[in-house]
Amino acid sequence: MNVLLCLAVILFILMILIGGKKGARSFFALFLNFGVLLLAAVIMTDPKANPVILTMLACTVISGINLFYINEVNNKTKPAFLSAMITIGVLLLFIVMVTETAMIQGFGEEETEELSIFSLYIGVDFVKIGASVIIMSTIGAITDVAISITSPMRELYHHQPSISRKELFRFGISIGRDILGTNTNTMFFAFFGGYIALLIWFKDLSYSFGEVVNSKLFSAEMITILCAGIGIALVIPITSWIAAYTFVKTREKRGTS
Amino acid sequence: MRDLASKIKNMPRSVLVLSIFSVLCFAASVVFVHHNESFYEDPIAKMVKTTQVDQTERTDMHGNKDQVFTQQILAELQNGEYKGQQIRLTNEHSASGAYDQEYSPGNKVFVSIDEDAAGTKELTGTIKNAKRDESMVLIAWVFIFILLAVGGKQGLFSVISLAVNAILLSYALDVYLVTSGTSLIWICGISAVLFTMISLLLVNGFNEKTYAAIIATILGTLSSLAVTYLVMWATAEKGLRYEEMQFLTRPPQIVFMAGVLIGSLGAVMDVAITMSSSIFGLYEKNHTIPIKALKTSGMDIGKDIMGTMTNILFFAYISGSIPMLILYLKNSTPLGYTLSMNLSLELARALAGGIGIVLTIPIGLYISIFFVNRKRART
User: Fold this and answer.
1) What is the mean pLDDT of chain A?
2) Listed residue (A66, A239, A52) closest to A139, CA to CA
3) Rg of chain B over CA atoms, in angstroms?
């Protein structure tokens, strides 16, 4: 049997054993997300498609799957969805700018051997593709933080319906601060794990510190880590504000009608 | 402005000192990277003028259309024996920029100076690499300031833990390379224990909640590694395409397993600390809470975080392959072959990490309950 299939089956069984119906839904969500990601990559091969817009669309669908399919459509997932989208939009602009000034798009010179059999003049915009890679690697964390903030905020709002918008916002920020550390940690290690081969390569070929810092691959990976951290931090105030605003607004509406 | 002044006045002393300190560090490091050319051995040139001299349309054998431009560049050397002299460079770049780069005035690059031109009035040379440290430092500061502004103390801790863990990883790899004969898995295993202790103790302090999370993290990672290893052994690693693993100077299986171990560690830690803090939180609220109630609430929390955590790992791993996928597909490679070549290792890593996450839920739950029972017996 194939390693991937075997691991997938084990994961599926474990998720059902521990998570029941929700576990099964989470497992299928992984597959749906994989499909969306692949589809986005395939459409990006068309030079006429703008990778930035495509990424925005893919992120909308993925956030929809993560928030509305695994959970449900309700007043805790709706503000989370909106905040995730706003954060991704802001972050995407920032990252396109960063990719351009740091010149980290495309492939590095360490990959030339592998690339030699390919034609590199393929007419798609690698700056934008580079930006979309960074965003896509962070989307899971961004939606996670958003939902982790809105659900305790809604609990608090239920227990104290007269709470002011400012207090709700403050509560959201304090929840966000608690999860900021663990979430950035998750991302750091996920990326470190992927970069181990590259780090050993640099050390085995005794690159100097300056060569490592200025190499395209290392810069690209560091920037991915840093942008992931920025995304996780940014989604906290945005979500807290939007959730506080929508909760208080629905209360006012209910009050007048 | 007055608002800001009063805000600064009301700040606690430690925050004020820290803010001033970080602003000073920021200024110093930015000034330094803009003037650090003399620290590099390779000659660095700063572009003064760029002119586009040629533009051709190119179609490759797969029918992909692209534009190729040629730039004539006049640059000034910033270090070394020709410091201050001008140098002529040419740069060919494509519109897509997969492996090349358009330059504009102000960009700094590493160059090699042509030997035969040395001594003559006009130097010529070729561009080797862009100088990226300036933008790297700037982005690092954006990251630090945003984390501090949003996270306060917790933000500071996560910046510190990133820095400490990165240095530790680099040091561990050094140890691995110098001492021949030690296995990478052992080195990574020992560092994983250190990573876990540093990250969790730094953020959550020395208490039973943290100890429970540390033990759960170690057991969870171990069991996920064991499952992955067993599967790889039982299936004879069928379906894993090591030949496309990049940057290999060492046996691929070992590097792959080390990646699985380190990569899933953060997510497993996250699950472990979430489980232990919620179980301890329930116990603190009600000291007589029955074990059964703790189990049910713990499982409910586990169900909630399972899906999102596996998603985080999944996207972090798979997204990096997008440029390679596009390159393969544009070079008329069949989809199935492209996927199996580029995604098999990433998918295996994501699935192994997912198994680690799910296994840590019951492990974390039972270890926290064990600690709660011990605490209860003592009081």
Assistant:
1) 91
2) A66
3) 27
> Å from A257 to nearest chain B CA?
35
Identify the residue among B102, B322, B329, B357 best suited for mutation to test binding to A, counting A beta carbons within 10 A and taking the highest.
Answer: B322
For chain A, the maximum distance between any two Cα atoms, rounded to a whole number of angstroms, is 72
Residue A109 DSSP one-character state: G
CB burial of residue A30 (10 Å; 0-12, 13-18, 19+): buried
Asked if B316 reaches chain A (Cβ–Cβ under 8 Å), the answer is yes
Compute the distance between CA of residue A245 and CA of residue A242 in angstroms, rounded to an integer: 5
The residue-averaged pLDDT of B37-51 equals: 91
DSSP B289: -
Mutate to test the interface with A, among B217, B330, B337 (most CBs of A within 10 A): B330
For B42-48, what is the mean pLDDT?
A: 92
Chain B CB contacts of A80 under 8 Å are none
Chain B residues with CB under 8 Å of A237 CB are 150
CA distance A189 to B166: 9
Q: Which residues of B181-198 are buried (b: 16+ CB within 10 A; e: fewer)?
A: eeebbebbbebbeebbeb
Q: For B289-302, what is each residue's pLDDT tens digit?
A: 899 999 999 998 99
Measured between alpha carbons, how far is residue B296 from residues A116, A147, A154, B23 in Å? 57, 22, 22, 48
User: Global pTM?
Assistant: 0.92
Contact B89, B111 (CB under 8 A): yes
Domains and CATH numbers, chain B: 41-131 (2.40.50), 183-378 (1.20.1640)
On whether any CB of chain A is under 8 Å from the CB of B24, the answer is: no
The answer to whether the CB atoms of B96 and A126 lie below 8 A apart is: yes
| Residues B197/B214, Cβ–Cβ less than 8 Å | yes
**Taking CB atoms and an 8 Å limit, are A190 and B151 in contact across chains?**
no
Report the complex ipTM.
0.93
For B215-244, what is the mean pLDDT?
A: 90
- B43 close to A (CB below 8 A): no
pLDDT tens track for B303-321: 888 988 999 999 999 999 9
**pLDDT confidence tier of residue A203, bands split at 50, 70 and 90:** confident
